[in-house]
Amino acid sequence: MRDHVLSGPGKCDLPGSSDPAFRGDASRYNPEELLVGSLASGHFTKVVLRPRVTIARGGDAAKARALHESAHGQCNISCDLRA
């Protein structure tokens, strides 16, 4: 489900979705925007991302690597954090 709502007791609802590059709704906040926004409002000197991928038995490791490289190049989180 790409569209979702973040909510908490006593707080306004926050409409969320995947990034438009991943067929999400551009009018809603995406995880990348929320992460970068939270980092920008705090005092952080370093952020380290260590994604872990498991390929199912019989999966195509070469295709998985290619997809990872493509996603990394389009990832707002990694691009914003490198800036």
Key features of this structure:
about 80 residues
Short description:
By secondary structure, the protein is mainly α.
Structural summary, described in words:
The chain is mainly alpha-helical. The protein has one domain (4-82). 39% of the residues lie in helices and 7% in strands. The protein is built from 3 helices and 2 strands. It has a two-stranded antiparallel sheet. A hairpin with a 7-residue loop joins strand 1 and strand 2. Helix 1 (31-41) runs parallel beside helix 3 (76-82). The two termini are 30 Å apart. 2% of the residues are buried. The mean pLDDT is 86.
Set down the secondary structure blueprint.
Blueprint lengths: L3 E3 L7 E3 L14 H11 L19 H14 L1 H7 L1
Antiparallel strand pairs: 1-2
Mean of pLDDT: 86
Shape: globular
Question: Count of helical segments?
Answer: 3
Report strand %.
5-15%
Order of the strands making up the biggest sheet: 1-2
| Total strand segments | 2
For the record, give the distance between the C-alpha atoms at the N and C termini, rounded to a whole number: 30 Å
Which sequence of SSEs, written as H and E, runs from N to C? EEHHH
- Derived structural class: mainly alpha
Radius of gyration: 16 Å
| Helix coverage percent | 25-40%
Main sheet makeup: 2 strands, antiparallel
User: Which parts are unreliable, with pLDDT below 50 for 5 consecutive residues or more?
Assistant: none
What is the domain tally?
1
